[in-house]
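Sequence in, structure out. Go.
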Amino acid sequence: MIKKLLIANRGEIAVRIIRTCKEMNIETVAVYSTADKDNLHVRMADKAVCIGPAPSAKSYLNAQAIITAALLTGAEAIHPGVGFLSENADFARDVEKAGLIWIGPEPDTIQMLGDKVQARMTAEKYKLNPTPGSQGAVTNENEAKKIAEVCGFPVIIKAASGGGGKGMRIVHNAEALASNLQIASTEAQANFADSTVYIEKYIENPRHVELQVVGDGKGGVAILGERDCSVQKNHQKLIEESPSPAVTNEMRKKMYEGAYNLFSALKYRGAGTIEFLVSGKNFYFMEVNARVQVEHPVSEFVSGVDIIREQILSCTQNIMTCKDGENKISGWSIEARINAKAPGTVTRLEVPGGMGVRFDSFLYNGYKVLPHYDSMVAKVIVYDDTRDKAIKKMLRSLDELVIEGVPTNLEQQKEILQNKKFVSGNFGTSFYVEVYGDK
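Output:
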């Protein structure tokens, strides 16, 4: 077992990783920007190294500074967390070239799955039908029109290396194709340094469902149930739950079989998520996230598996403690993301507790929420026997949560959880717009 690990991330996910490392008797090294010198992960780690100024490009995206920090502190491995460099195949290669262990899939696997055009073609080999669309990259208007004619409008243009709604444009008619193709390509280049885009049929108001997997790097793959992430604002998830109210046992079986065959064939290592769009009785492959996800705690609650621990074991020793194949899940878990609406100083913080309640955050009284990074400042995760009980427990937990000094979306999350459509379980990704419009 490794003795020291560097976490190439910040905030809540860094705190989350540190906690598991402490339980595994692994020393941790935090990296931080000058703006994050008072962040909780810096306080909790055994060592901390400043890697640059506030802008991410000069700190958390500074690959060489991170690797240097690992080597100087005697770390044996680097855990990338989520976002930043977590799915950067070149960074993963550089980590391994430096003689360090990469806590993630093989770099070639990341590169192949990170290219969503290539991932679509790979998924087809394992009977995971992607959404109808282009077979490869789309480079001009004529190509785009031909594909749209076959698929039928509306279509969606997506960045091949994208995520988080960037480089994504919905097009409802042929006249708007050319301009949106150019805009999407420009956004893709600006955000991902890759202007490649592709086209899919736009499925209106589907469910967004994803499977949590862990691979041992030798062909063994554990499937830890599915999550439903359909409550979204501008393609950013707000509430996630496991299992999904929309997935039937028959659909679940097909999803699990296809996912297992794909990840096993890739000899996938570490944690990963395969995402689908569900429309009626049909489901379509969307993409693979070759890393741990923000919403992994709901899968941990229903499966009883520490996913960060499994990541570390699989990437350092090629073993996993969870069962190869489908793992039994029980009960229901829901996660609500708490986002800051503006910077500010936390003047009062009271966190929820009780049986089946988890609060993942980096906040503390007196902490200054900064404008430089992602707006998510906390996650409340609950677990109970049934969905109805889990909803009630989440509402009770959000009532207990007090964050003063920083405006958040806390009250809106309570409204969503009490909305009749949400409570019914019968909704899709248009839920937020249907309820709140563009607010």
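Check: The domain at 4-103 is CATH 3.40.50.20 (Rossmann fold). The chain has three domains: 4-103, 132-201, 207-436.
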